[in-house]
Amino acid sequence: MRLGVEMVAAMVIAVVIGWGLDKLLHTSPWLMIVMVPVGMVAGLRNLLRAAGKK
Amino acid sequence: MAGPTIDALGQFGLTPGLGPLGRALNFTNSNEAMLAAAGIIVILFGIGLKQRALVPGRLQSLIELLYEFVRNMCVDTIGEEGLRFFPLVFTIFSFILLGNLIGLFPYFFAFTSHIAVTLTLALFVFVFSTGVGFYTHGFKFLKFFVPAGVPVWLLPLLVPIEIISYLSRPVSLSVRLFANMTAGHVMWEVFAGFMLLLTASFGILGAFASVVPLGLNVALAALELLVAGLQAYVFAILTCLYLHDAVHMH
After folding, report:
1. What is the pTM of this model?
2. Chain A within 8 Å of B146 (Cβ-Cβ)?
């Protein structure tokens, strides 16, 4: 539960940032697509950090 | 036949509290529960610490236990200078703990089961720890987003990842508490509704069979007690962890 949330949260934030930048710059949907892998990696980073600290 | 149905989410609805005055101020049952939690903390501590006995009584030793617990958590996680943040962590911990606990009682409202409440708490922690970081290190705090010992050509890739990882903290912090509390209460409601459904559809046989969901609910009550304490602990220790990152930058 704890670790799952960490991954999903990073994904959500990344996609929201991408979507917002798309709206601002009228580049829909490219930035959102670019942000998805970045969000996945950030989620994994969160996961590793959370698992390492415990 | 329109029998009883399971309304699992109706329990989280907000209703105006405190009569017409509350309706005018948008004062809801959630706010009532928050006031109750804060009031219980203040009254409990007021009574428990009035004696100041050298050999503490039951209430006083409970409070001293809580105090020592959070204090050790602060010192272990943040370090000696973590004691500066002890009042904040202790307030957050006791408020969430009491909120979770009084939410377990019938007719009380679990305000931590609303994402609006948990997100506000998490955003406060997030903004505060970021502020502490900038206050302690100035603009050098931005180095927090640059991992040490990485080739320069990887930085354009790694810095956004670190920033997203940092920004996702309030989301994971709030969703964790909210999801745990909501899931527990929904499960309770579903099992309780299941008892009514069994009795309505199978009569006396169903009434006997509904012992099973009742037993499950009793077991769940114990689990929920654990979750209430654990989630308050997790929220507090993650607050400490974020403050540690802000103070020490690694």
Report:
1. 0.85
2. no
